[in-house]
């Protein structure tokens, strides 16, 4: 009788794909290893809130990650490569805000319903609260900090200012990120088409008409 193939045990490292990307199987193995480590470690609120460990400051990064249940990820954020040791369950939103301190991306509902956390992944708009950071190795992540800056605003940012496309401002970064992505998406030319395309982004202040006006101005100007 032939011996059945062995199932990788928690903590074992699966062979990398040709592109170096994390596979679904290897990711699940790492999550299992993290869960096992967490189950044998006394609970500490301070430990749960601890920031990611920067690789360059770790004398023994491989041993550190294994001992703490963390996993190493390399993310391309706003054109910069960042290496972090994070809990494999960390959302892209929490990674950006808590570990990389890019707080322009806002946490609203944390359930993918309001759009305040919208970022771009390889040019596509994504609700970062619903996406695990570890699944985005090798992809280009862009946040609101990466599309413009004071004195060199993106045309969409400038149009939002010109048309008062915000009130409290909490949803604004997500609105702008969706609007910038919309410029490259197939969509009709009417205001109703824009409203439909932007329906995933909620403005609780109700500045929708101004937001549509800003988007339409940028679309007309090409």
Structure, described:
With 222 residues, the protein is of the alpha+beta class. It folds into two domains: 24-41 and 51-146, Beta-grasp domain (Ubiquitin-like (UB roll)); 155-221, [2Fe-2S]-binding domain (DNA polymerase, domain 1), CATH 1.10.150. Helix content is 34%, strand content 12%. The chain contains eight helices and six strands. Strands 1-3-2-6-4-5 form a six-stranded mixed β-sheet, sandwiched between helices. The longest helix has 16 residues, at 24-39. The termini are far apart. 33% of the residues are buried. Mean pLDDT is 82; it is low at 7-16 and 36-59. Its cofactor is [2Fe-2S] cluster. This is Aldehyde oxidoreductase iron-sulfur-binding subunit PaoA. Residues 71-147 form the 2Fe-2S ferredoxin-type domain. Its EC number is 1.2.99.6. It comes from Pararobbsia alpina.
Rg: 21 Å
- Helix/strand-derived class? alpha+beta
Straight-line N-to-C gap? 68 Å
How does the major sheet shape up?
Answer: 6 strands, mixed
| Total domain modules | 2
| N to C succession of SSEs | HHEHEEHEEEHHHH
CATH architecture assignment of the largest domain = Roll
Q: Class of the largest domain, according to the CATH hierarchy?
A: Alpha Beta
- Roughly what fraction of the amino acids lie in strands? 5-15%
Number of strands: 6
Q: Give the strand order of the largest sheet, numbering strands 1, 2, ... along the chain.
A: 1-3-2-6-4-5
CATH topology of the largest domain: Ubiquitin-like (UB roll)
Helix content: 25-40%
Mean pLDDT: 82
Q: Which stretches of 5+ consecutive residues score pLDDT under 50?
A: 7-16, 36-59
């Amino acid at each position: 009788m032939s011996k059945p193939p062995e199932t990788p045990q928690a903590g074992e490292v699966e062979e990398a794909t040709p592109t170096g990307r994390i596979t679904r199987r290897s990711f699940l193995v790492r999550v299992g290893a993290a869960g096992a480590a967490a189950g044998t470690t006394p609970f500490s609120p301070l430990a749960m809130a601890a920031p990611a460990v920067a690789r360059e400051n770790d004398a023994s990064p491989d041993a550190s990650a294994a001992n703490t249940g963390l996993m190493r990820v390399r993310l391309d954020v706003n054109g910069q490569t960042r290496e972090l040791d994070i809990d494999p369950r960390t959302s892209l939103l929490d990674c950006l805000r808590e570990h990389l301190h890019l707080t322009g991306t806002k946490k609203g509902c944390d359930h993918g319903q309001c759009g305040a956390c919208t970022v771009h992944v390889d040019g596509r708009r994504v609700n970062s609260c619903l996406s695990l950071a570890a699944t985005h190795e090798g992809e280009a992540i862009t946040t609101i900090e990466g599309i413009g800056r004071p004195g060199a605003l993106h045309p969409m940012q400038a149009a939002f200012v010109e048309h008062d496309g915000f009130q409290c401002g909490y949803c604004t970064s997500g609105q702008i990120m969706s609007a910038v992505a919309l410029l490259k998406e197939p969509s009709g030319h009417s205001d109703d088409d824009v409203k439909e395309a932007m329906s995933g982004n909620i403005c609780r202040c109700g500045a929708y008409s101004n937001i549509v006006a800003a988007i339409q101005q940028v679309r007309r100007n090409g």
